[in-house]
């Protein structure tokens, strides 16, 4: 099912016993974050802080904090169910006769159902504040003691390409400086930064709108690493199985989700930078303070009874783990469309989704593992993968115990590693300079004679299947 808005999702969680209303007074400075961190680590419920000290608006946290809740948020029992639908879209069956062509028409028609619809009235504009807009009513959380201040951590940042008008929606943290200005932390590699560079070249102010809250599929879509020409709101419609309703902002020419909780309208000046950070990041370290563009608030629109959503990041596992795992499973078919020999992918939690990337492949020829490494480093945000490890198709790369066992046994460090240089994640603090460093590929597949391996490769130790079945059937007889 598609949730209409954040309130409907919270109600559904509460009906399942997965929402805890916290009525005790709680501070938005560190205290709420510590509570949410404990809830995430314990696999606990979503949290609705109804009494945030000094603020009139409730604070919702841990909205996606378990794999089951992530699936529930996207309306599926397994994330792979979405991957199946994704595969149907990108790999349609080619009709061979007229009857099959007719059967394809409904599928093609359903694609049109994902396109956003524009409405003239919206819940997110029940209250309009243009005269003296302020962020002061929002219980923006300060997560860690070394943070440079409070940060908006779950924003949907809407911008337009100055040439094409094409929309981008990204999730970029916002360091709150005061009631009307924030940092705009878009990394150099991201879509928002590309739009910003376009406005800088034109020497024009950049219109920006930020949606806070909304239905969970739309929130997730803003975090997804979509190809540059894919609209995040169309992708949200695909996830929801019905279109997102958008409404035009009051003061800027940008459309935003009509069912969001709060909309922040404003601009970024092309010549203004301000120190942003430090920030306790998903790497488990503080990302350092650096100059970033500044967002100026010019208008606030909101629901009469808005809820402010937030997340916290830090040393994994944290809530963002489940958003990242959703991306891994949903986008696997897209990766397989480009690199069809890939059987499975695992971006392990401990690798914070860009330090380690494991791939099982259908190995077909000598050097195939190195070919896949090179392909991975050429694909979107996978270019940041610091350690790419390639395994044979029969390896369960979701099992870290098996992964480490295979690496330890199958790899000769001199022969089976490849080091390259190129772009690295903006949060990579070990590289000698920002945004550029080295990456390593590791071939953990069985080595063939055609790859220069002259010895005999040993077989895995395994019990015959019939003995396994026999013992399974008789297990109770053994009295164990």
Average pLDDT works out at: 93
Distance between the termini: 45 Å
Structural class call reads: alpha+beta
| Relevant CATH superfamily of the largest domain | Electron Transport, Fmn-binding Protein, Chain A
**Low-confidence parts:** none
Relative strand content: 15-25%
For the secondary structure, the number of strands is 23
CATH class of the largest domain: Mainly Beta
The dominant shape is globular
Number of domains: 2
TL;DR of this structure?
The protein has helices spanning 6-15, 31-41, 67-73, 79-90, 98-112, 191-202, 216-223, 232-240, 320-330, 332-338, 368-376, 400-410, 413-416, 465-474; strands at 19-22, 46-49, 59-61, 117-119, 127-129, 151-152, 155-160, 167-170, 174-175, 181-183, 206-212, 245-248, 255-257, 262-276, 279-280, 286-287, 290-302, 308-309, 342-346, 356-361, 387-392, 417-423, 436-443. It is an alpha+beta fold and 480 residues long.
Any overview of this molecule?
The protein has 480 residues and is α+β, with helices and mostly antiparallel strands. The protein has two domains: 6-309, Electron Transport, Fmn-binding Protein, Chain A (Pnp Oxidase, Chain A), CATH 2.30.110.10; 339-451, UbiD C-terminal domain-like (3-Layer(aba) Sandwich). The chain contains 14 helices and 23 strands. The chain has helices at residues 6-15, 31-41, 67-73, 79-90, 98-112, 191-202, 216-223, 232-240, 320-330, 332-338, 368-376, 400-410, 413-416, 465-474; strands at 19-22, 46-49, 59-61, 117-119, 127-129, 151-152, 155-160, 167-170, 174-175, 181-183, 206-212, 245-248, 255-257, 262-276, 279-280, 286-287, 290-302, 308-309, 342-346, 356-361, 387-392, 417-423, 436-443. Strands 5, 7, 8, 10, 11, 14 and 17 form a seven-stranded antiparallel sheet that branches. Strand 12 (245-248) and strand 13 (255-257) form a beta hairpin. Helix 4 packs parallel to helix 10 and helix 7 (216-223) crosses helix 8 (232-240). The longest helix has 15 residues, at 98-112. The protein is globular and about 80 Å long. The chain starts with 5 loop residues before the first helix and ends in a 6-residue tail after the last helix. The mean pLDDT is 93.
């Amino acid at each position: 099912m598609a949730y209409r808005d954040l309130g409907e999702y919270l109600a559904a969680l509460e009906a399942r016993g997965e929402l805890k209303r916290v009525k005790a007074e709680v501070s938005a400075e560190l205290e709420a974050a510590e509570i949410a961190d404990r809830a995430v680590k314990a696999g606990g419920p979503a949290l609705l802080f109804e009494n945030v000290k000094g603020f009139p608006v409730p604070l919702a946290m841990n909205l996606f904090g378990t794999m089951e809740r992530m699936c529930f948020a996207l309306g599926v029992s397994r994330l792979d169910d979405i991957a199946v639908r994704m595969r149907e879209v990108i790999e349609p069956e080619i009709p061979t006769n007229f009857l099959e062509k007719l059967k394809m028409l409904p599928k093609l028609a359903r694609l049109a159902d994902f396109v956003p619809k524009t409405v003239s009235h919206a819940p997110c504009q029940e209250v309009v504040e243009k005269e003296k807009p302020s962020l002061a009513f929002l219980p923006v959380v300060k997560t860690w003691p070394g943070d440079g201040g409070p940060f908006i951590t779950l924003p949907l940042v809407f911008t337009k390409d100055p040439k094409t008008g094409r929309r981008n929606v990204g999730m970029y943290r916002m360091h709150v400086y005061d009631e009307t200005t924030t940092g705009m932390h878009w990394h150099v590699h991201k879509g928002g930064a590309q739009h910003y560079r376009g406005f800088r070249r034109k020497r024009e102010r950049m219109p920006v709108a930020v949606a806070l809250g909304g239905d969970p599929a739309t929130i997730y879509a803003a975090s997804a690493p979509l190809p540059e020409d894919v609209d995040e709101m169309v992708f949200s419609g695909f996830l929801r199985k019905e279109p997102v309703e958008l409404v035009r902002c009051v003061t800027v020419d940008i459309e935003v989700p009509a069912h969001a909780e709060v909309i922040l309208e404003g601009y970024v000046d092309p010549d203004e930078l301000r120190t942003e950070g430090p920030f306790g990041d998903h790497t488990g370290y503080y990302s350092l303070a650096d100059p970033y563009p500044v967002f100026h608030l010019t208008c606030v629109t909101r629901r009469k009874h808005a809820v402010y959503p937030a997340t916290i990041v830090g040393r994994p596992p944290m809530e963002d783990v489940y958003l990242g795992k959703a991306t891994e499973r949903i986008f696997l078919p897209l990766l397989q469309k480009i690199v069809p020999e890939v059987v499975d992918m695992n971006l392990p939690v401990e690798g914070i989704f860009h330090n380690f990337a494991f791939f099982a492949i259908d190995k077909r020829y000598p050097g195939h593992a190195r070919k896949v490494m090179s392909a991975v480093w050429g694909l979107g945000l996978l270019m940041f993968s610091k350690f790419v490890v390639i395994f044979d198709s029969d390896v369960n790369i979701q099992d870290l115990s098996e992964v480490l066992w295979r690496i330890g046994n199958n790899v000769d460090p001199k022969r089976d590693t490849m080091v390259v240089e190129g772009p690295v994640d903006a949060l990579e603090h070990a590289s000698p300079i920002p945004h550029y460093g080295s990456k390593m590929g590791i071939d953990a597949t069985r080595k063939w004679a055609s790859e220069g391996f002259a010895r005999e490769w040993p077989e895995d130790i395994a019990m015959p299947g019939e003995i396994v079945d026999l013992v399974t059937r008789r297990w109770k007889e053994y009295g164990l």
